[in-house]
Design a protein that fits this description.
This protein has 132 residues and is α+β, with helices and mostly antiparallel strands. Strands 4, 5, 6, 7 and 8 form a five-stranded antiparallel β-sheet that branches. Strand 6 and strand 7 form a beta hairpin. The two termini are 29 Å apart.
Length: 132
């Protein structure tokens, strides 16, 4: 049993980047699928595939690297809100990650989105993680 599936997701991605893996396989959930879509839309991963092989299914994520320097597009991916301490942000105090170069992934009433999208829609939510 996993008590924090989002932290597990982020740790699997982080470990795969440190080991220079091209593909990482993660147990699927609807929240993880939406986070993967946000990472793909913002250009942090090359591609993804949802496989429903068993009851839970898996997510296969193709990580993105610079072809010349072999450095990952994701420099840092860290959890903000934990099960023990939830972190919420309103529209007026939305976090800025690396002065706008990174993204904060939020869980809002309109679904999973980045900090910039939430600010444009004038809604706040739970800050799940920072990516840059």
């Amino acid at each position: 049993m996993n008590t924090d599936p989002i932290a597990d997701y982020l740790t699997r991605v982080r470990n795969a980047i440190k080991a220079n893996h091209r593909v990482v396989e993660i147990p699927a959930s609807n929240l993880k699928k939406e986070m993967t879509k946000v990472l793909f839309d913002k250009g942090f991963i090359t591609n993804y595939k949802f496989e429903d092989t068993n009851t839970q299914g898996t997510i296969k994520i193709a990580l993105k690297y610079n072809p010349i320097t072999k450095i990952s597009a994701i420099r840092n991916i860290s959890r903000v809100s934990t099960p023990g301490l939830r972190r919420y942000a309103g529209v007026d105090n939305m976090p800025r990650v690396l002065n706008g170069l990174g993204i904060a992934i939020l869980s809002t009433s309109k679904g999973i989105m980045t900090d910039k999208e939430a600010k444009n829609l004038n809604i706040g939510g739970e800050v799940l993680c920072y990516v840059y």
